[in-house]
Amino acid sequence: MGLLSYLKEIFTGKQETPEGPKAPGAPAAKPAATAAPEKVKVAEAAEAKPVQTPADVKVEQKPEEKIMEEKPVADKITIGHVHMSGCTGCLVSLADNYEGLFTLLDNYADLVYCLTLADVRDIPKMDVALVEGSVCINDPHSVEDIKKTRENATIVVALGACAAYGNITRFARGGQWNQPQHESYLPIGDLIDVDLYLPACPPSKESIRNVAVMAYLLLKGTDEQKELAAAYLKPLMDLAARGTEACGCDLIYDVINQGLCMGCGTCAAACPVRAIDIVYGKPQIDRDLCIKCGACYTQCPRSFFNFDVINQFEAISEAIDAAMGKGGE
Predict the structure, then answer these.
(1) Per-residue pLDDT tens over the stretch 145-155
(2) Is 79 helix (H, G, I), strand (E, B) or coil?
């Protein structure tokens, strides 16, 4: 085979056979079989494979991993807000804690009952019941609710002046166009036993927050924390032991007459109806304007807080700040 034949064989794939003299009667030689190029075979294989549409393509989906929320405190207390006859100002003060309220509900307490914030109709079992408003004794349903609250709650808190002392509802009159039968209101302490008072009209958001934190420490904390919480809550329990009557005269009897008034003006600033004026450094009470809410007495720094609280004020403040995540501030 010559060089030219060898090149033809490489480029064409055909193999030439040398032509020799043919024998008489011999069959004609068959042409050499041609070898198909590899490219042609690949193209034929591609054409033979059916084309897949997007609907035919199956995508394997991995199940989504559910991330469970980790609660900082597993053993939380249960809190409920029971609304009687009031203006909802105390609930607004509670909600004014904003991020602090979320911290309480995330870490320390479950809100199990609240007509405004929780979809629960019957008063359940709870550790702490915050009762707002006085009780209309002309309404059997209200009387039943306050008694059921006492049965189902470990600690009952009179939240606000209406629940503690009757406040403005003491002056309610029957004969209104919409509810003529609702004419008599009593503070909850006249119907049930109350563990502690948190009066004022309304109580400050900080005081509500502090009572919630201290209630948690009292029920779920260590022995040291329980002792600290008891020291903070004891004056509020002493307020409940004083009874359901309050007046601006309490300042005269228990503060001014005892030589304790320092003329700071806190009582005048706390009075919701501006019935107190500071004259010559001392509070003067207008009894015609006083609504018997008890705000002046309970806000006075020298009224009912005892030395058990004052001596541990720094430790109490640090405990509250730590609970609310403010330790690094």
Answers:
(1) 999 999 999 99
(2) strand
Contacts of 287 (CB under 8 A, 6+ apart): 247, 248, 249, 275
295, amino acid identity: A
Task: Order the strands of the 153-159 sheet from edge to edge.
Answer: 109-114, 77-83, 126-132, 153-159, 196-198
111: three-class secondary structure by DSSP = strand
Helix, strand or coil for residue 148? helix
CATH number given to 77-171+180-323: 3.40.50.700
Tens-place pLDDT, residues 187-234: 999 999 999 999 888 898 999 999 999 999 999 988 988 988 998 898
Buried b (16+ CB within 10 A) or exposed e, 45-58: eeeeeeeeeeeeee
Nearest by Cα to 119 from 129, 130, 111: 111
Reply yes or no: is the peptide bond before residue 50 cis, omega within 30 of 0.
Answer: no
pTM higher than 0.85: no
Q: Which of 79, 130, 125 is nearest to 236 (CA)?
A: 130
Cβ contact 114:71 at 8 Å? no
- The structure tokens listed for 43 are 């193209």
Amino acid at position 183, single letter? E
Task: Tokens for 21, please give them.
Answer: 């003299």
